[in-house]
Write a structure and sequence with these properties.
Layout: E1 31-35, H1 41-54, E2 58-63, E3 69-76, H2 79-85, E4 96-105, H3 113-120, E5 128-132, H4 141-159, E6 173-180, E7 183-189, H5 214-224, H6 228-234, E8 240-244, H7 250-257, E9 261-265, H8 272-275, E10 280-283, E11 296-301, H9 307-319, E12 323-331, H10 337-354, E13 360-364, E14 372-378, H11 381-385
Parallel strand pairs: 5-6, 8-9, 8-11, 9-10, 11-12
Antiparallel strand pairs: 1-3, 1-4, 2-3, 4-7, 6-7, 12-14, 13-14
Helix pairs in contact: 3-4, 5-7, 9-10
Bound molecules: S-adenosylmethionine.
S-adenosylmethionine (SAM) binds near residues 211, 244, 245, 266 and 267.
GO molecular function, one term: S-adenosylmethionine-dependent methyltransferase activity
Subcellular location: Cytoplasm
Pfam families: FtsJ (PF01728), RlmM_FDX (PF18125), RLMM_N (PF21239)
Length: about 400
């Protein structure tokens, strides 16, 4: 069963969180709406179906390949029960997930407001309105439409009692997702089930001194795969780390900016400034052969190779106690991408359990990832500190 590997933790449930705004009204749902990397719609759809099946809720997905949008329509059970169990940061391929309430076809494009108000009037109330489009239309016409609709739609929804007078977190947020000028999906979002980021995308600023754009990838991983408290716990000044396949040095550079002393392993050339940095030791070696002389806090690995090979080597690092934490990318094949991720996670789980190592493994396709997913494996005191047993 695909999903984030839960070696010491079950899928997070809403019962462990504070009272959800979902309990404040009656919302009738038709499915789930998710955004993912364009081209990964099938994997995202499968992920939603897997989560739904755990709640004995079933449905089917409508996929337009290359759009980055998945509309999973429920055919049996309540999609709200599924949505309540989702935490988007724990999804692998979905970067945003909403609970879809209404699939609205606009017949008269001179009035898009009335059909939306009529559809939503009988349901529960919302604390904020977002009108958005996940689609990249070249002329930006959908973006313009979303912008133009915001003021009249907000006013009409407020008058109808659908939208609260002032913004509030006590109620779910309403997302009107424009898939075309004639097609709007009304969806509900609460956090952390849905991402608080617009379109689920973190907007990170690339710093010119970074040796490569890959620096954004590792920054996003730390930002989105850990809560602020977890991040503070696992990433500290004075730690030591190893970067396998480090050149030209984006990941090493990022770790050094966090105060971590790094050993950068690659046959390729590291950026000159990094070579001269006293916090960096460069080793020209094979990343699949290199072994640390003593245990480190972090191993990170961005080598482009077969995912199973990378996974085995990362399992070596964790099982032989060479590192406490590992962050690495699995480059996915063109086909059977889901199977590959599943097989790799299963293998890692077997290795860690075989070595009697308690761990928490998180997997995510980040916005800055391409044909790959990022894996974060956490062992040691992290598990007791955050009660993952
Ligand atoms: C995608 S790049 C890494 C980019 C790097 N993370 C950054 O932020 O700049 C992959 C690197 O892996 C290196 N590489 C490939 N196979 C390797 C191996 N077996 N051992 C060490 N490095 C390897 C390549 O030389 C290349 O520099």
């Amino acid at each position: 069963m695909i999903g984030n590997a839960r070696m010491s933790q079950k899928y997070p449930t809403s019962s462990s969180r504070k009272r959800s705004p979902l309990s404040s009204g009656k919302y009738s749902a038709i499915g789930l709406l998710a955004y993912c990397r364009p081209g990964f719609e099938a994997e995202c759809a499968q992920e939603l179906q897997n989560i739904a099946s755990l709640q004995f809720v079933y449905g089917y997905s409508k996929i337009d390949k290359g759009t980055g949008v998945v509309f999973w329509r429920c055919s049996q059970g309540n999609p709200l029960d599924v949505y309540k169990e989702i935490e988007v940061s724990r999804c692998i391929f979905a970067r945003q997930v909403f609970c879809a309430l209404h699939d609205i076809e606009i017949e008269d494009t001179t009035d898009r407001v009335s059909p939306v108000v009529e559809a939503l009037r009988p349901g529960g109330a919302f604390g904020f309105l977002h009108i958005e489009t996940p689609l990249e239309d070249e002329a930006g016409s959908l973006q313009k439409l979303a912008k133009k609709l915001t003021a009249p739609m907000s006013a009409a929804l407020r008058n109808a009692g659908v939208l609260s007078k002032a913004k509030t977190d006590e109620l779910p947020q309403l997302h009107l997702v424009c898939l075309s000028g004639q097609h709007i999906i009304a969806a509900l979002a609460v956090h952390p089930n849905s991402s608080a980021l617009p379109l689920g995308i973190p907007r990170l600023r690339f710093r010119n001194e970074a040796p490569s754009r890959s620096a954004l990838k590792i920054e996003e991983a730390f930002l989105t795969m850990l809560t602020p408290a977890e991040r503070e716990f696992v990433l500290k000044r004075g730690q030591r780390g190893v970067d396998l396949g480090a050149a030209p040095g984006g990941w090493t550079w990022y770790m050094v900016t966090q105060g971590v002393k790094m050993t950068a392993v690659d046959h390729g050339a590291l950026q000159q400034e990094l070579l001269e940095d006293p916090a960096v030791t460069y080793v020209s070696d094979d990343g699949y052969v290199y072994k640390p002389q003593r245990k480190v806090d972090w191993v990170v690995c961005d080598i482009v190779d077969k995912p199973k090979r990378t996974m085995e080597r990362m399992a070596d690092w964790l099982c032989y106690d060479w590192t406490t934490y590992a962050l690495f990318n699995l480059k996915l094949p063109m086909k059977t991408r889901m199977d590959e991720v599943e097989a790799c996670l299963q293998r890692l789980q077997e290795r860690l359990l075989g070595a009697d190592i308690e761990s928490e493994v998180r997997v995510k396709q980040l916005y800055h990832d391409r044909e790959e997913v990022t894996v974060l494996a956490l062992t040691g005191h992290f598990l007791t500190a955050f009660q993952k047993h």
